[in-house]
Amino acid sequence: MRQCYASEIITPKKVLLRGLWFGPKKAKRAYVWVHGLGSSVFSMQSLATRLVDGKTAVLMFNNRGHDKVSRIAHVGERLTRKTHLGGAAHEVFTDSVDDMQGAINFAKRQGAKEIFLVGHSTGCQKSIYWASRKKSRGVKGIVLLGPVSDWSAETKLKGKIKIARAEGVARALLKRGRKHELLPPGVWHEVLDAQRFLSLYTPESVEEIFTYAQPKKNPRVLRAVRVPVLVLWAEKEEFSDRPAKDAVAWFSRHLRKGTALVVPRTGHLFRGAETRVVRTIRQWTRPHGS
């Protein structure tokens, strides 16, 4: 059992997000944990909470992409039937900037002077996108755990033909003004609306930030980040289309300021490697936060 404080995060656009604050109420250092696609505040707590100590807190929170389908709540709302749907199926990727800013503002209000983002999976794209739009204001650095390209992962798992067919259906829905209509079950294996599919699984999408599967494409969003970035890539990453050493080499070439490392003998969720991951994060963040 871990002690924590239930937290309500209000974003700049007045969206209400739920979170859990692990560690001291007033912490010198705070890690803001950004979960991946369809995950939640409860995901990967066994890893994240190991970062807690007497001066360090971890904020885990539900961003608008939590679970498969969720409801987006606004401060002061009176009619719940008028709210929009979120979750992995309906989330609008660019809204993540508002979510992230709300979480960072919350950590600041708790007195944290050294704030680091820790993104996992699709949370990595959100962390880097926020940093590129907000010039990383308020954070000391960013940790990326398993920053896999969703497009390249699905290309490997499902093949280009199936993705192209689903893309055609999604674009047709978009043209008819039905961007939040779910793709038919026979078209795609995941529950996704049209705009979410196009955001995740097309190479020209704003969400396709880690462009290692497109050798000629300049990863401008990643290169725009000026704070230090730590990339931890699992040696047995099951969603990767290339060996871990090659992925790490790509990040090493394109990070403006940062380090990319392979975590041995583990997969996308870093199971069994929690102690190593936490030790690496602590060793990396302490010098930057001093």
Question: What this model shows, in words?
Answer:
By secondary structure, the protein is α/β, with parallel strands linked by helices. The protein folds into 2 domains: 4-149 and 227-289, Alpha/Beta hydrolase fold, catalytic domain (Rossmann fold); 150-207, no CATH class. Helices cover 33% and strands 20% of the residues. Strands 1, 2, 3, 4, 6, 8, 9, 10 and 11 form a 9-stranded mixed β-sheet that branches. Helix 4 (150-158) packs across helix 5 and helix 5 packs across helix 6 (194-201). The longest helix is centred in the middle third of the chain and has 16 residues, at 160-175. The two termini are 31 Å apart. The model has no long low-confidence stretch (mean pLDDT 95).
Structural features:
Rossmann fold; 20% strand; 9-stranded mixed sheet; 2 domains; 9 helices
Average per-residue pLDDT, rounded, comes to 95
Task: Tell me the overall shape.
Answer: globular
CATH class of the largest domain: Alpha Beta
CATH homology superfamily of the largest domain: Alpha/Beta hydrolase fold, catalytic domain
